Amino acid sequence: MITKRIIPCLDVRNGRVVKGTNFTGLSDVNDPVELAAFYSDSGADELVFYDITASNEGRKLFTDVLQRAASNVFIPLTVGGGISTLNDFDRVLKCGADKVSVNSGAIEHPDIIENAAKLYGSQCVVLSVDAKRVDGRFMVFSKGGRVNTGLDAIEWIKQGYNSGAGEIVLNSIDTDGVKNGFDLEMLKAVCEVVSIPVIASGGAGKMQDFLDLFKTLPKVDAGLAASVFHFGEIKIDSLKRYLSENGVNMRID
Q1: What is the DSSP letter of 224?
Q2: Nearest residue to 127 (alpha-carbon basis) of 21, 198, 38
Q3: Active centre residues (catalytic)
Q4: What is the dihedral of CA 151, 152, 158, 161, to 10 degrees?
Q5: How high is the pLDDT of residue 20?
Q6: pLDDT of 85-113, one tens digit each?
Q7: How would residue 63 be classed by pLDDT, with cut points 50, 70 and 90?
């Protein structure tokens, strides 16, 4: 049986980890390299780094922070933010990333998913989707959740899957930072159209939320969260023991 993964997410702006609610109201949390090493030592299965303002500001991703983090952690590292070309994929992978997450860049250049998958393998290509309910539909937003693209989220995810993405990260803007649980309805709709790993992001507030996620949607492969880990509200080793004791297959060190 495949083990479920617990993944801390480090949203980085100007070299610091930040966190907000519904993608707004960002506040400073910690140094990303120190935090990455802490999570690696605490039993995290993977880490996700997002340079959250790179796309909106039209600049390249933080390679210096990435190189330092990659040399200090020994679990898989996914990196995103400002990824729009194959050169960006190449640069990030050479800095130590195991996987590259593409979001706004794929919306602007849809062929990047297929081209990157052919060049580096699907296992390196993560399609990250920021989605929000608009008039009863799940819609894709870009530029860090600022712009409604007009794309239907489920159709966009199907397109990314068919183009060769090896993993989907679904970020629900509706539940982001609210801590009332993952967006099970939106996640269910995604799981029904793809057969690659789906990572749930947005809404974790307590350990029960992770249990509800994996028990309700067994097709979801991983739970991703930020503030509950950053502020010590949930400790990763305790969470994984709790899930294991409640019948969820976890990797326990």
Answers
A1: E
A2: 198
A3: 11, 130
A4: 40
A5: 47
A6: 999 899 889 989 999 999 999 999 999 99
A7: confident
Encoded amino acid at 131, one letter = A
Q: Which among 80, 75, 77 is positioned nearest to 62, based on CA atoms?
A: 80
How many C-beta atoms surround the C-beta of residue 52 within 10 A? 24
Give the model's pLDDT for residue 231: 84
Q: Are 211 and 250 in contact (CB under 8 A)?
A: no
- Neighbour count for residue 4 (Cβ, 10 Å): 21
pLDDT at 64: 74
Query: 5-245 architecture in CATH?
Result: Alpha-Beta Barrel (3.20)
- Beta strands (DSSP E) in the chain are 5-13, 16-21, 24-30, 47-51, 77-80, 99-102, 125-134, 137-142, 147-152, 167-172, 198-201, 220-225
* Residue the block writes with tokens 């801590």: 179
Q: Residue 89: what are its φ and ψ, rounded to 5°?
A: -60, -50
